Amino acid sequence: MTSRLVHALRLALLPLALLLAACAARPPQPDWQINAHDAAERATRAWLAGDSRVADQEWRRARAEVARTGSPALLARLELMRCAAQVASLEPGACPAFEALRGAAEPAERSYADYLAGRTAQVDVALLPPAQRAALANPAAIGAIEDPLARLVAAGAALQGNRAAPETLVVATDTASSQGWSRPLLAWLLLRAERAREVGDEALAQALLRRAALVQSRGKPAQTAPRAPG
Protein backbone atom coordinates (compact mmCIF):
# COMPACT_ATOMS: atom_id res chain seq x y z
CA MET A 1 0.00 0.00 0.00
CA THR A 2 2.78 2.44 0.95
CA SER A 3 4.84 2.02 -2.21
CA ARG A 4 1.72 2.26 -4.41
CA LEU A 5 0.62 5.48 -2.75
CA VAL A 6 4.06 7.07 -3.12
CA HIS A 7 4.03 6.13 -6.80
CA ALA A 8 0.53 7.56 -7.15
CA LEU A 9 1.54 10.85 -5.56
CA ARG A 10 4.49 11.26 -7.86
CA LEU A 11 2.48 10.51 -10.98
CA ALA A 12 -0.37 12.74 -9.90
CA LEU A 13 1.81 15.71 -9.11
CA LEU A 14 4.79 15.43 -11.46
CA PRO A 15 6.85 17.57 -11.79
CA LEU A 16 5.77 18.92 -8.42
CA ALA A 17 7.17 15.95 -6.50
CA LEU A 18 10.56 17.67 -6.38
CA LEU A 19 9.92 18.06 -2.67
CA LEU A 20 10.09 14.30 -2.28
CA ALA A 21 12.81 13.37 -4.73
CA ALA A 22 14.93 16.39 -5.67
CA CYS A 23 18.04 15.25 -3.90
CA ALA A 24 17.63 11.51 -4.30
CA ALA A 25 20.68 11.34 -6.59
CA ARG A 26 22.88 13.12 -4.03
CA PRO A 27 22.94 10.93 -0.92
CA PRO A 28 22.59 11.18 1.94
CA GLN A 29 19.13 12.73 1.83
CA PRO A 30 18.58 15.49 4.38
CA ASP A 31 16.51 14.50 7.39
CA TRP A 32 13.89 17.15 6.67
CA GLN A 33 13.28 15.70 3.22
CA ILE A 34 12.83 12.15 4.47
CA ASN A 35 10.58 13.30 7.30
CA ALA A 36 8.49 15.52 5.03
CA HIS A 37 8.14 12.70 2.52
CA ASP A 38 6.91 10.25 5.14
CA ALA A 39 4.54 12.74 6.76
CA ALA A 40 3.03 13.81 3.43
CA GLU A 41 2.51 10.17 2.47
CA ARG A 42 0.76 9.40 5.74
CA ALA A 43 -1.32 12.57 5.47
CA THR A 44 -2.52 11.74 1.97
CA ARG A 45 -3.34 8.16 2.89
CA ALA A 46 -5.31 9.32 5.94
CA TRP A 47 -7.12 12.00 3.95
CA LEU A 48 -8.26 9.58 1.27
CA ALA A 49 -9.40 7.16 3.98
CA GLY A 50 -11.50 9.89 5.58
CA ASP A 51 -9.37 10.36 8.71
CA SER A 52 -9.16 14.16 8.96
CA ARG A 53 -7.53 14.17 12.39
CA VAL A 54 -4.54 12.09 11.33
CA ALA A 55 -4.30 13.89 8.00
CA ASP A 56 -4.13 17.29 9.70
CA GLN A 57 -1.50 16.07 12.15
CA GLU A 58 0.69 14.68 9.40
CA TRP A 59 0.37 17.76 7.21
CA ARG A 60 1.50 19.85 10.19
CA ARG A 61 4.52 17.59 10.59
CA ALA A 62 5.33 17.85 6.90
CA ARG A 63 5.06 21.64 6.98
CA ALA A 64 7.28 21.85 10.04
CA GLU A 65 9.96 19.79 8.30
CA VAL A 66 9.82 21.85 5.12
CA ALA A 67 9.86 25.07 7.15
CA ARG A 68 13.31 24.04 8.42
CA THR A 69 14.64 24.89 4.96
CA GLY A 70 13.34 28.47 5.06
CA SER A 71 12.15 27.98 1.46
CA PRO A 72 8.67 29.30 0.60
CA ALA A 73 8.96 27.62 -2.81
CA LEU A 74 9.29 24.18 -1.23
CA LEU A 75 6.41 24.88 1.12
CA ALA A 76 4.30 25.93 -1.87
CA ARG A 77 5.00 22.54 -3.48
CA LEU A 78 3.90 20.76 -0.35
CA GLU A 79 0.68 22.77 -0.14
CA LEU A 80 -0.04 21.95 -3.77
CA MET A 81 0.17 18.25 -2.97
CA ARG A 82 -2.53 18.75 -0.37
CA CYS A 83 -4.59 20.78 -2.84
CA ALA A 84 -4.53 17.93 -5.35
CA ALA A 85 -5.81 15.43 -2.79
CA GLN A 86 -8.59 17.86 -1.85
CA VAL A 87 -9.62 18.40 -5.47
CA ALA A 88 -9.73 14.64 -5.99
CA SER A 89 -12.18 14.50 -3.07
CA LEU A 90 -14.32 17.42 -4.28
CA GLU A 91 -13.33 19.49 -1.27
CA PRO A 92 -14.64 23.05 -1.76
CA GLY A 93 -12.35 26.05 -1.57
CA ALA A 94 -9.55 27.66 -3.52
CA CYS A 95 -6.58 26.18 -1.63
CA PRO A 96 -5.74 29.34 0.34
CA ALA A 97 -2.54 27.90 1.84
CA PHE A 98 -0.99 27.65 -1.62
CA GLU A 99 -2.37 30.99 -2.76
CA ALA A 100 -0.63 32.66 0.18
CA LEU A 101 2.65 31.29 -1.22
CA ARG A 102 1.90 31.74 -4.92
CA GLY A 103 4.44 34.50 -5.33
CA ALA A 104 7.23 32.16 -4.26
CA ALA A 105 6.08 29.23 -6.39
CA GLU A 106 7.67 28.21 -9.68
CA PRO A 107 5.70 28.67 -12.94
CA ALA A 108 4.89 24.93 -13.10
CA GLU A 109 3.33 25.02 -9.64
CA ARG A 110 1.33 28.16 -10.39
CA SER A 111 0.04 26.62 -13.61
CA TYR A 112 -0.86 23.38 -11.82
CA ALA A 113 -2.72 25.31 -9.14
CA ASP A 114 -4.74 27.11 -11.80
CA TYR A 115 -5.50 23.77 -13.43
CA LEU A 116 -6.73 22.31 -10.15
CA ALA A 117 -8.93 25.35 -9.54
CA GLY A 118 -10.49 25.14 -13.00
CA ARG A 119 -8.88 28.37 -14.23
CA THR A 120 -8.04 26.78 -17.56
CA ALA A 121 -7.46 30.07 -19.37
CA GLN A 122 -4.49 30.74 -17.09
CA VAL A 123 -2.91 27.30 -17.46
CA ASP A 124 0.35 26.86 -19.36
CA VAL A 125 -0.46 23.41 -20.72
CA ALA A 126 3.18 22.63 -21.50
CA LEU A 127 4.01 22.82 -17.79
CA LEU A 128 1.40 20.28 -16.70
CA PRO A 129 2.22 16.62 -16.01
CA PRO A 130 1.54 14.56 -19.18
CA ALA A 131 -1.54 12.80 -17.78
CA GLN A 132 -3.14 16.07 -16.73
CA ARG A 133 -2.20 17.69 -20.03
CA ALA A 134 -4.12 15.02 -21.93
CA ALA A 135 -7.08 15.31 -19.56
CA LEU A 136 -7.23 19.07 -20.04
CA ALA A 137 -7.22 18.70 -23.82
CA ASN A 138 -9.95 16.04 -23.74
CA PRO A 139 -11.83 14.99 -20.58
CA ALA A 140 -12.62 11.68 -22.26
CA ALA A 141 -8.94 10.84 -21.79
CA ILE A 142 -9.33 10.79 -18.00
CA GLY A 143 -10.46 7.18 -17.97
CA ALA A 144 -7.25 6.15 -19.75
CA ILE A 145 -4.96 7.59 -17.07
CA GLU A 146 -3.18 4.59 -15.62
CA ASP A 147 -2.54 5.84 -12.10
CA PRO A 148 -5.69 5.99 -9.93
CA LEU A 149 -4.79 9.11 -7.95
CA ALA A 150 -3.79 11.00 -11.08
CA ARG A 151 -7.07 9.89 -12.65
CA LEU A 152 -9.08 11.12 -9.68
CA VAL A 153 -7.23 14.45 -9.61
CA ALA A 154 -7.95 14.91 -13.31
CA ALA A 155 -11.64 14.21 -12.75
CA GLY A 156 -11.80 16.71 -9.91
CA ALA A 157 -10.03 19.35 -11.97
CA ALA A 158 -12.43 18.74 -14.86
CA LEU A 159 -15.36 19.27 -12.52
CA GLN A 160 -13.83 22.47 -11.18
CA GLY A 161 -13.47 23.75 -14.72
CA ASN A 162 -17.02 22.74 -15.75
CA ARG A 163 -15.57 20.24 -18.22
CA ALA A 164 -16.75 17.02 -16.59
CA ALA A 165 -19.15 14.81 -18.53
CA PRO A 166 -21.44 12.30 -16.80
CA GLU A 167 -18.91 9.63 -17.75
CA THR A 168 -16.24 11.55 -15.83
CA LEU A 169 -18.24 11.17 -12.63
CA VAL A 170 -18.62 7.44 -13.23
CA VAL A 171 -14.87 7.06 -13.81
CA ALA A 172 -14.12 8.97 -10.61
CA THR A 173 -16.57 6.89 -8.59
CA ASP A 174 -15.21 3.62 -9.92
CA THR A 175 -11.63 4.75 -9.28
CA ALA A 176 -12.24 5.73 -5.66
CA SER A 177 -14.25 2.56 -5.08
CA SER A 178 -11.58 0.25 -6.45
CA GLN A 179 -8.95 1.84 -4.21
CA GLY A 180 -11.12 1.89 -1.10
CA TRP A 181 -10.71 5.67 -0.80
CA SER A 182 -13.81 6.41 1.23
CA ARG A 183 -13.61 10.21 1.32
CA PRO A 184 -13.55 10.84 -2.43
CA LEU A 185 -15.90 7.91 -3.04
CA LEU A 186 -18.57 9.41 -0.78
CA ALA A 187 -18.20 12.83 -2.40
CA TRP A 188 -18.53 11.49 -5.93
CA LEU A 189 -21.46 9.22 -5.04
CA LEU A 190 -23.42 12.10 -3.51
CA LEU A 191 -22.66 14.33 -6.49
CA ARG A 192 -23.89 11.66 -8.88
CA ALA A 193 -27.05 11.17 -6.81
CA GLU A 194 -27.72 14.89 -7.00
CA ARG A 195 -27.19 14.92 -10.76
CA ALA A 196 -29.43 11.87 -11.18
CA ARG A 197 -32.26 13.61 -9.38
CA GLU A 198 -31.80 16.70 -11.51
CA VAL A 199 -32.59 14.63 -14.61
CA GLY A 200 -35.42 12.73 -12.93
CA ASP A 201 -33.63 9.39 -12.48
CA GLU A 202 -34.78 8.65 -8.93
CA ALA A 203 -33.93 4.95 -9.19
CA LEU A 204 -30.29 5.73 -9.92
CA ALA A 205 -30.22 8.39 -7.21
CA GLN A 206 -31.48 5.92 -4.62
CA ALA A 207 -28.97 3.27 -5.70
CA LEU A 208 -26.13 5.77 -5.36
CA LEU A 209 -27.39 6.91 -1.97
CA ARG A 210 -27.46 3.32 -0.75
CA ARG A 211 -23.83 2.98 -1.72
CA ALA A 212 -23.04 6.24 0.05
CA ALA A 213 -24.81 4.99 3.17
CA LEU A 214 -22.65 1.88 3.15
CA VAL A 215 -19.49 4.00 2.95
CA GLN A 216 -20.67 6.22 5.79
CA SER A 217 -21.63 3.27 7.98
CA ARG A 218 -18.19 1.64 7.60
CA GLY A 219 -19.99 -1.68 7.30
CA LYS A 220 -22.49 -1.22 10.09
CA PRO A 221 -26.17 -1.68 9.20
CA ALA A 222 -27.42 1.62 7.76
CA GLN A 223 -30.62 2.99 9.30
CA THR A 224 -31.36 5.71 6.78
CA ALA A 225 -29.86 6.63 3.44
CA PRO A 226 -28.07 9.99 3.21
CA ARG A 227 -29.89 12.68 1.32
CA ALA A 228 -28.40 14.21 -1.78
CA PRO A 229 -27.35 17.86 -1.36
CA GLY A 230 -29.99 20.39 -2.37
Automatic annotation (TrEMBL):
<feature type="signal peptide">
    <location>
        <begin position="1"/>
        <end position="24"/>
    </location>
</feature>
<keyword id="KW-0732">Signal</keyword>
<protein>
    <submittedName>
        <fullName>Uncharacterized protein</fullName>
    </submittedName>
</protein>
